[in-house]
Design goal:
76% of the residues lie in helices and 5% in strands. The chain has 16 helices and three strands. This is Type II secretion system protein GspF domain-containing protein.
């Protein structure tokens, strides 16, 4: 197999290339034996159309991964040997896919691989950030502390996602019901009463005529409409899975007026928290910035942080490099990082930045939860009123003729 990698040598220079190896673990061993610090590694082989389907059914929920990481951290904190900890977790894990993954982790470690190398072979479950954090902890001897941080990190992510999901459940149910009722009215009810309007020569409003034409079309061609929408969604999701598609989606996400503040604060908090832990772990600043960039699920921020890392490698202060990216990082971030650089407490200031912006994310999410339900219900109410008015007005005109 061929793997494409990004790595840095001992001098901090970025290297990109391909390595041939029978599996990911062997490829990792080859690169590390040459003194390279791996930033990312992906399969260089052509993907098959069914890979996404297989990945979907073999996915591990973030909640299950968070529980696994918390239990793992607790066992390591109790000084349980690594192999014994994984054996215990294998017996306790309820998720069958994760249970199989834990068994493979134990087998790889028993065969002599490091924990980060074993995690590297399970990239469908563990993210690049997760793997790189464990790899840095192995270098500094702080695996227990980093596993605790990863458990806290996943717990915050699960909490944030669950709050937004719970806020959206009721509006989504209402929207689905509205779409179902609207489809029945357009495809079943309106085509039945259209002849009555034509025979009575009743004046039909423009909006009603549009709905009548739509209903006739759906009644005759609904199967093709469903197939077309399904194909369109499949093409859209396939495009969003490409690098270009992710970049376009991330750019659109950052242009939305209300959500831009939410994502910006979320990304800044995630970056500051990750960078703080990496610096505490003794990882060089340039590599820490690169790794922290992988914690942000946004291509634009990853590219910006890559530029920041290159500037720092050339001798620029991190605070000044961040201040140049004012479109992505608020001025406060650069100022506080500058204070940390001056006082020699950069990790502490980054931790404060993370807490500050995390609290702001909580405030924005709370406002979002309070506003999204009434806004959606109001919109659906207006659409429902227009839909029923388009039917009732012609009926009222018809009654007036008698």
């Amino acid at each position: 197999m061929k793997f494409r990698y990004q790595a840095r040598n001992k001098g901090g220079e970025l290297q990109v290339g391909f390595v041939d190896a029978p599996d990911r673990g062997t490829a990792t061993n080859i690169l590390t034996s040459h003194g390279l610090y791996i930033l990312s590694m992906v399969s260089g082989e052509e993907a098959h159309w069914y890979d996404s389907i297989v990945t979907f059914f073999r996915r591990v929920k973030t909640t299950d991964l968070m529980i696994f990481t918390r239990q793992f951290s607790t066992l390591l904190g109790a000084k349980v040997p690594l192999g014994d900890a994984l054996k215990n977790l294998h017996r306790q894990t309820n998720n069958k896919v994760l249970q199989e993954v834990v068994f493979e982790l134990y087998s790889d470690i028993d065969a002599g691989l490091a924990l980060s190398q074993a995690l590297e072979r399970q990239k469908g479950v563990f993210s690049d950030f997760y793997i790189n954090m464990v790899r840095s902890a192995e270098v500094t001897g702080r695996v227990e502390e980093v596993m605790g941080f990863l458990a806290d990190y996943l717990e915050k992510e699960v909490h944030l996602v669950s709050r937004v999901r719970n806020a959206l459940i009721y509006p989504i149910v209402v929207i689905v019901l509205f779409i179902g009722v609207a489809f029945l009215l357009l495809a079943v009810v309106l085509p039945q009463i259209e002849p009555i309007f034509k025979e009575s020569n009743v004046a039909i409003p423009l909006f009603t005529r549009i709905l009548l034409a739509t209903g006739v079309f759906l009644k005759q061609w609904w199967i093709f409409v469903v197939l077309f929408v399904g194909l369109l969604l499949a093409l859209l999701f396939n495009y969003l899975g490409t690098k270009e598609g992710r970049a376009v989606a991330d750019d659109v996400r950052m242009r939305l007026p209300f959500f831009r503040k939410l994502f910006e604060r979320l990304y800044v908090a995630r970056f500051a928290e990750s960078l703080s832990v990496l610096i505490k772990g003794g990882v060089p600043i340039v590599q820490s910035i690169e790794i922290a960039g992988h914690t942000i699920d946004n291509v634009l921020y990853q590219e910006v942080l890559h530029e920041v890392a290159e500037e720092v490698r050339r001798g620029e202060l991190l605070s000044r490099a961040l201040e140049k990216q004012e479109h992505f990082f608020p001025p406060l971030v650069g100022q506080m990082v500058g204070v940390g650089e001056t006082t020699g407490r950069l990790d502490e200031l980054l931790d404060r930045i993370s807490r500050f912006y995390s609290s702001q994310v909580d405030d924005v999410v709370s406002n979002l939860v309070e506003l999204i339900q009434p806004a959606l219900i109001l919109g659906i109410g207006v659409l429902s009123g227009l839909l029923f008015a388009s039917i009732l007005l012609p009926l009222y005109n018809l009654v007036q003729t008698f």
